[in-house]
Amino acid sequence: ILIVDHVLMQMFEASEAIIGGHIKGKASxxxxxxxxxx
Length: 38
Known about the structure:
Number of strands: 0
Helix content: over 70%
Distance between the termini: 36 Å
Largest sheet: none
Mean pLDDT: 76
């Protein structure tokens, strides 16, 4: 169970980083207007 939890946490953190980076990339492209739309 501990191993599965550890893997799930790593996957969650990785997906969170990818999603966060994608949102930051979009926001920087769109500028302040993009940040407000999020």
